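One-letter codes give the sequence; the integers encode the fold. A sample entry reads:
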Amino acid sequence: MNYAASGHPTQVRASVCMATYRGSKFVEEQLASILRELGPDDELVVVDDASPDETASIVGRVKDARVRLIVAPQNRGYVRTFEEAIRLSRGQFIFLSDQDDVWIEGRMAAMLAALESAQVVASNFEILGGGPRPWIPKLRSSDSRRNLANLWGILIGYRAYYGCAMGFRRDAIGLVVPIPPFVRESHDLWLAISGNMARSVAHLDEPTVFRRLHGENQTPAGWRSLRRIAAARIMLLRLMIEAFRRTRRVAGSDE
């Protein structure tokens, strides 16, 4: 029998954690693509970040017992919303999902297979409807164990880790949450740093999600100022230090 973080028994295999906000245009299509991938013992945890539109109502109208909707009383930002969804999850395997993408058929099976031997899995993506990808090179399975190189790649912005294409095992939850309080964006890089610092990450060569690019994407687009770039690099260094501390603490508790 499986056990959730609270210590209560559960038979949930996989939890998909979605943060929603002003997602009424696209969330219904995304929900359908996810539910097609889920098994009877999986769940989809949706935390709505106090959307002023019909997002929560659209999710609430989905007649599927695997969907759990939680509506936040006030807006806290997508990082804290994802964190709450993770905390509320009950599955032994946890996947992150944006509200406006579309899952590719076979995603769940591919990522679950990778998580048999690694605590964190990261896959590639394609652009919905075609179109150019960001300039960052695709992840390669051959780099999965090059953890120091991956950490360096994260620091200089050369590793394409995106939360919408990532997942992790419950035995890594002590590394992932709580997300450090100074993180206001890039929760996906925090997950990637945690997995690489623990030397337990798997890259998938194939894409598992179609990303939808539009004017309301939360992922920053375009070039940033030098000041913002420097601030981001300092944050990443702080995250690496924190991940190192947690990895040592978890390793010590297992001895």
Q: What stands out?
A: Residues 93 and 112 are 8 Å apart (CA to CA). Residues 226-254 form the longest helix (29 residues).
